[in-house]
Amino acid sequence: MENFKLNNGTTIPAEGIGTFLLSPDDAENAVYSAFTNGYTMVDTANAYMNEKAVGRGLKKAGVKREDVYISTKLWPSIYGDAAKAIDDTLKRLGTDYIDLLFLHQPVGEIKAAYRTMEDAVKAGKVRSLGLSNFPMDELKDIVDNEEIKPSVIQVEAHPYFPQTELKKYIASFGGRIMAWYPLGHGDRSLVNEPVFTELAKKYHKSNAQIILRWHVQSCNIVIPGSKNPAHIKDNIDIYDFTLTDEDMKAIATVNKNIRYYTATKEALNGYLHMAPDFDSQK
Questions:
Q1: Is residue 36 part of a domain?
Q2: How far is Cα 170 from Cα 136, in angstroms, rounded to an integer?
Q3: 20, 46, 94, 145: which is deepest, by most CB within 10 A?
Q4: Whole-angstrom Cα distance, residue 99 to residue 65?
């Protein structure tokens, strides 16, 4: 496993297990499978309704807390009481600190929640801060006006949409990208692009492994999600080869500036008014 240095002096694994859309049982089993196959990071969120299961999976895997990197996200409906939300999140995960805490969506009481997260860093409850799905203008507002710069920006990123301009901006304050949909949301046309097939043959890897290796060499943190133990094992088997500069240039040619998801104002408003009982998760 490779690691990246963050702008606050901490380090983060280049790859983790993602738990988006996983049921509690599947999340628990995926985390167990991942951490018994060499993973050291897991990404979850209040809204995934599987934080308790993530905690169980880590306990089942028998890993020490200091060997685990936990990333999670606060949901907009609880930004207004972020201090309680953070404490509740810690309880669900079964830990006394979170390695990386995000604001999940750019809507609601953003500034107040971010400042409470800054307080949580000072109190030792959180180590690094992040923003998920924030557009450039709102991202700049936080960077320019808040005390602690975000360390990680979680966004959709993959070879069809490499986030080139965003990466140039966040490099100015030492931030890093964490890519969701790193394999293009299962789009077979992306995964089966000829360049990936050719490189897979060259390195005796799968097309997906080539794409994940491209992410890491592009300095993207990746969180591919799966409940299939074989896929989980394969996704981390990307550290025994290196793509050449020519390989990286060839992959750059598939950029189509295509997103698979864009949040509308209506969707964001819906997120704000969606208020699940996060403690009811199994």
A1: yes
A2: 10
A3: 46
A4: 11
| Burial readout 197-217 (b: 16 or more C-beta within 10 A, e: otherwise) | eebbeebebbbbbbbbbbbbb
Q: What residues have CB less than 8 Å from 79, skipping those under 6 apart? A: 85, 103, 108, 109, 110, 112, 113
CA-to-CA distance for 146 and 117, rounded, in angstroms? 11
What does the DSSP assignment read for 62-81? T--GGG-EEEEEE-GGGGGG
Judge whether 48 counts as a catalytic residue: yes
**Considering the domain boundaries, does residue 24 fall inside one?**
yes
Is 123 a domain residue? yes
Neighbours of 266 (CB within 10 A): 8
278 within a domain of the structure (yes/no): no
Count the domains in the chain: 1
Cβ(102)–Cβ(75) below 8 Å: no
CA gap 261, 253 in Å, rounded: 22
CATH classification of the domain holding 260 = 3.20.20.100
Residues 6+ apart with CB under 8 A from 275: 77, 78
Average pLDDT over residues 240-268: 96
Neighbours of 133 (CB within 10 A): 23
Catalytic residue among 32, 48, 79, 114: 48
Q: Which residue range forms the structural domain that includes residue 153? A: 3-271
Q: What pLDDT does 186 receive?
A: 83
Stretch 79-85: mean pLDDT: 98
pLDDT at 1 over 90: no
Question: Are residues 116 and 108 in contact, defined by beta-carbon separation less than 8 angstroms?
Answer: no
